[in-house]
Hints:
Layout: H1 2-16, E1 18-24, E2 32-33, E3 48-51, E4 58-64, E5 68-74, E6 85-89, H2 93-99, E7 107-115, E8 123-130, E9 135-142, E10 147-154, E11 160-165, E12 177-185, E13 191-195, E14 201-204, E15 218-225, E16 234-245, E17 255-258, E18 260-265, E19 267-269, E20 276-280, E21 287-292, E22 297-298, E23 301-303, E24 306-308, E25 315-322, E26 327-334
Parallel strand pairs: 14-17
Antiparallel strand pairs: 1-16, 2-4, 3-6, 4-5, 5-16, 6-15, 7-12, 7-16, 8-9, 8-15, 9-10, 10-11, 11-18, 12-13, 13-14, 19-20, 20-24, 21-22, 21-25, 23-24, 25-26
Amino acid sequence: MKKLLLSALVLGATLSNAQVLETYDYNSLTVGNVGGTTDGLTAGQGGIYSYNGSAGDYKIVAIDAAHGNSLQITNGSTAAAASSRYTWMDGTALTDAWINRTSGNDIVYGKIEIYTGTATGTNRSGSYLASASSGIVGATYNSGTKQINAMMYLNGTTSGFYNITGVSTVTYPANTWVTVQYAYDYNTGDTYLKIGNETPKLLGVTGYTTSGGFDPVEHDVFTAYATGNTASTTAGFDNYIIEAKATTDEFLGAVEIKGKVGSEIATVYPNPAVDVLNISYSKNVKSVEVFDAAGKKVKANLAGNKVDVKNLEKGVYFIKINTGSEVQTQKFIKK
Length: 335
């Protein structure tokens, strides 16, 4: 009797270690277009919002029997912001779940299965967590190198949310499922990555430090162009889960890996914004264009890396950031 009771107590302790913040397996959705619009305003099946491209770029498909239904995204064939595709679950559910987590559950953990699909072009397909001011942590499959890259926030000469290469030499060919896990320690900023059956990694970049204190408010599943892209790719996603945990058990035995900084991902804050929207980007921003959720261009003045949004109506907007050498598009909310 005592043995059974002890087992129950241990099981209870194990279960209480993790709290699910957001999860999706797509099996309850109907095969076909996710639906809604691609302006980020109207949700499609299952409350999924999408941005960029056309409705046919976002589909629920049956890739194989083992996975049932999965999300499939097809991006564009250029090295421009219009080729990227984003999906997310809107609302405050993730924010509220994190704020109300059990005391001590300060590790935010993500896990997703990525289907490499056509693996064409030079594109990144994966998922990441973002705070109200910046990206925090994530992972992507690069269809050009056929390798998994990390995404993490770094402090250095130029601070920001970066694509991190060199974290793995293993290649994953077309039409392959690979499970990716990542984690961020809210207290220390330590960032972890585990790719398939590879050894878990504690990530770092020479000359940079990590930063704690970012609260997750949004999880994006996406495909994005990389420099030099000239072809479209189609990738799949399934069985993602975002949790709050007290430990990094999945990353025990992690080895420290010094990756290399790839392209920086521009971030905007505060988000939601009231009067001013700041652009966090190491490059000089030459111009911006702001569009409402219906795709109509609205007036917003740029001064340095700050955008005056005080006269905008409340709602969802998208800002196109142009540095002269590249263009990125980010979503923000006017409060």
